[in-house]
């Protein structure tokens, strides 16, 4: 009886497998279609929607490669998923848009497949800092999009636009600021270093960072809100409840265009420029397609489309794009930006986080 | 119906489902959290299984002691405010006509349907300078100019009391409805004023209910992490806010888990103390 059962199951399994195999062979189109596709991870929500609508269909039309967009969570959860999947030889997405800190963390475990620039002709269009390299010079990622955090004010309360980040330290602005609540997304240490200590190199040593923290502590009485939730600050800025702070340049521009009394200013020290990279998982089999995709995305014309439709700042040199002055000003500026010290958030993250929390909570 | 003690294994059958749910949705996650709290954090990475106490060591500092102390103090303040407000309210409610009671209870239940986010944003508008209640006071000539009432401790406390108040009433309501009205009547005929009767008869008769309600609101308030962020300054952030920061923004699960385990232990300790104190009071 048991023998018969075993035999029966075995026979069914063989039949099933055979059937599956035959149908695969009978429909080679499936296999072929799979060859010409690419799974691309993009931040879920606004980014993915915009890319699905404005970018991916055009790419497929131009190259014949189908894109399967994967919504990735913000934060480092996606990095962890990619790493664990890569260990098992899997790639939940071939190419992903990654934050700069995640790029560095992925480099530490060799997660990113090195890219071959000879296959990415348009890489020469990029501004140098948007080519992410391993310490030994291999290329880990290529700049996908960038965006600015700037000094924003309510125009009813501040008739004159402030010109420097130093306005945060002005005793006249007591209890008037809204700032981001985390050390790793506000980048205020870099702002302090650039404004008062000559540049972000001042953060090279722990003494330098301590000095920046001490200087930053002087801002505390001026801060009314340390926000994690963007909607909370945006609403308060529009109503004039909290008339000054740091916020995203493109979103502030959209709010102003809607008639709200707000403005975004690039201070003379520069706006904070944060960015995301395209990076290829080492477990991906789609190396060819990935290079085609990254090359396509690095074209000045595509970067210009992103600036117009998604509100991101181009990662290629400005003069190569056909953006008008107004279009460029809506997303970027020619003033030299403050580039966050991503390396610190990788090597000293716990220490920085502890110091920061003690600074604002204590 | 006669109740028999279970004889065979099958008699325990109905218990299997709830027991399984409890294991799957409470025991397993909680045990995982305890395990993770001993794991090793990898800065710039995630975590690896290990057994080390460094996460707890980091927590034991003056800074975190202050945050923990504030969180407990806030939760106790919310519990006391809620109970002090809810007892007279519920007492008066039970003395009202049935129809009026239903309307009140439906209104309170509808507050429960509001999310913490909506409550937080509503209070932050009410307490704002540009659109808040102080504008009404200015119009009434009671204040010279509108001012912002937040961020402040008062704003956090108000928001959290508002959120917990319906629960408090719902827990107190059955006990107060069942309270024998002849007790207060007897007190009144013996010459006590209504207020005296309330404090010398009603409140002592409800002592166990009040203790249970205090504990419930306390635990409810301890988990709050959104309202302190929306209505308070950083010094009003609770331990739950810092746990969220570590877990979500720093990817430091082991440290977040250690803080959470610590919070649970302290809470259990306080609840045990309260229950013991209640027993002693009863025995005396």
UniProtKB/TrEMBL annotation, chain A:
> Gene3D superfamilies given for it?
Periplasmic binding protein-like II
Q: Which InterPro entries match?
A: SBP
Q: Which residues form a coiled coil?
A: none
Superkingdom of this protein's organism:
Bacteria
UniProt entry keywords in alphabetical sequence: Periplasm, Signal
- A Pfam family that the UniProt record links to this protein: SBP_bac_8
From the Swiss-Prot or TrEMBL record, give the protein name: ABC transporter substrate-binding protein
Originating organism: Rhizobium herbae
Automatic annotation (TrEMBL), chain B:
Q: Which compartments does it reside in?
A: Cell membrane
Keywords associated with the record: Cell membrane, Membrane, Transmembrane, Transmembrane helix, Transport
What's the superkingdom here? Answer: Bacteria
Which family does the entry's similarity section mention?
Answer: Belongs to the binding-protein-dependent transport system permease family. CysTW subfamily.
**Which topology term describes how it sits in the membrane?**
Multi-pass membrane protein
Per its UniProt record, what CDD domains does this chain match? TM_PBP2 (cd06261)
* Major localization class: membrane
TM annotation in the entry: 12-39, 59-90, 102-128, 148-176, 197-227, 255-278
State what protein this is by name.
Answer: ABC transporter permease
Q: Which residues form the ABC transmembrane type-1 domain?
A: 68-274
PROSITE patterns registered for this protein in UniProt: ABC_TM1
User: Is Transcription among this UniProt entry's keywords?
Assistant: no
Listed Pfam families = BPD_transp_1
